[in-house]
């Protein structure tokens, strides 16, 4: 994970030859008309949790990973409770509901690249204690939903997110956030404050027109160095980076962008 380009996970076959449990049965037999001998009552069949079974017949389930790429899905299917990684790229999903990932306590990565999503319930990704990576690039989203503090990767590039589409101080408490990609949106400011853990910030081709000197650095502490943040992309924005030289004194590298 790192470059802004889409990271393909290697698409797996989406039509696994998985036998369907419970498909067998006894053909109807002809009755002799005579009373049959009493047989002992059969014990009740155990209750089996079949949640997610249809998904694993339609999609490919490998361990904790569920691959539902390019299946023309229009909604998130029910997932097995032990799902850790969910991929539903190149589908026709239009909305993410609050209930779609409810009680998915092991879910670490959600990848919904290249769907037709316009709306995500603001609490759809909250309540997921293990969630670290959300990829919702190449959709039609105008509002970035609230995300848990456990995030390490957020990729919402190629959407319609504007200034009002970001929560105030949305990333402040994500102390493990490493990669934040908001390329090709309508954001007009750098979404500060950013955690010290951040390594890569991609904001190219937005509408950022100005930079404050304390956007990245602490002007009250000239010994402060933001060592981790080595990759900042601001190219394609209507901003002249040379106008605010003090904004980069704590960075290991000057951001990529226009200097004239």
Compile the SSE list and pairings:
Blueprint: H1 53-58, E1 60-62, E2 65-67, E3 85-87, E4 95-96, E5 109-111, E6 119-120, E7 133-135, E8 153-155, E9 179-181, E10 200-202, E11 231-233
Parallel strand pairs: 2-3, 3-5, 4-6, 5-7, 7-8, 8-9, 9-10, 10-11
Antiparallel strand pairs: 1-2
How would you describe this protein?
The protein has 1 helix and 11 strands; from the N terminus they run αβββββββββββ. The two termini are 32 Å apart. The strands form 2 sheets. Strands 1-2-3-5-7-8-9-10-11 form a 9-stranded mixed β-sheet. Strands 4-6 form a two-stranded parallel ribbon. The chain has one helix spanning 53-58; strands at residues 60-62, 65-67, 85-87, 95-96, 109-111, 119-120, 133-135, 153-155, 179-181, 200-202, 231-233. The model is unreliable at 1-37 and 42-53 (pLDDT under 50).
Name a few traits of the molecule.
1 helix; Epiphycan; disordered N terminus; two-stranded parallel sheet; little secondary structure; nine-stranded mixed sheet; 260 residues; elongated
Task: Report the major sheet.
Answer: 9 strands, mixed
> Helical percent range?
under 10%
- Going by helix content, strand content and strand pairing, the class is little secondary structure
Order of helices and strands: HEEEEEEEEEEE
Tell me the span between the first and last alpha carbons.
Answer: 32 Å
Could you list the spans in which at least 5 consecutive residues all have pLDDT below 50?
1-37, 42-53
Relative strand content: 5-15%
Supply the number of helical segments. Answer: 1
Radius of gyration: 25 Å
Strand order of the largest sheet: 1-2-3-5-7-8-9-10-11
Number of strands: 11
Query: Can you give the mean pLDDT?
Result: 85
């Amino acid at each position: 994970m790192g470059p802004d380009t889409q990271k393909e996970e290697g698409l797996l076959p989406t039509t696994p030859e998985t036998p369907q449990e419970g498909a067998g049965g006894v053909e109807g037999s002809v009755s002799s008309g005579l009373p049959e001998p009493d047989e002992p009552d059969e014990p009740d069949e155990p209750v089996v949790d079949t949640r997610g079974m249809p998904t694993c017949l339609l999609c490919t389930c490998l361990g904790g990973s569920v691959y539902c790429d390019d299946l023309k899905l229009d909604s998130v299917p029910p997932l097995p409770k032990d799902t850790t990684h969910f991929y539903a790229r190149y589908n026709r999903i239009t909305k993410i509901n609050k209930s779609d990932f409810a009680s998915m306590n092991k879910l670490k990565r959600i990848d919904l690249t290249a769907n037709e999503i316009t709306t995500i319930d603001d609490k759809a990704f909250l309540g997921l204690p293990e969630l670290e990576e959300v990829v919702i690039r190449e959709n039609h989203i105008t509002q970035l939903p609230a995300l848990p503090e456990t995030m390490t990767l957020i990729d919402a590039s190629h959407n319609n997110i504007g200034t009002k589409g970001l929560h105030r101080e949305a990333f402040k408490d994500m102390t493990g956030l490493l990669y934040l990609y908001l390329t090709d949106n309508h954001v007009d400011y750098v979404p500060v404050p950013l955690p010290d853990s951040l390594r890569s910030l991609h904001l190219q081709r937005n509408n950022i027109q100005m930079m404050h000197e304390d956007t990245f650095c602490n002007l009250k502490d000239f010994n402060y160095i933001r060592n981790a943040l080595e990759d900042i992309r601001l190219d394609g924005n209507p901003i002249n980076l040379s106008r605010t030289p003090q904004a980069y004194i704590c960075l290991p590298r000057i951001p990529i962008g226009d200097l004239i």
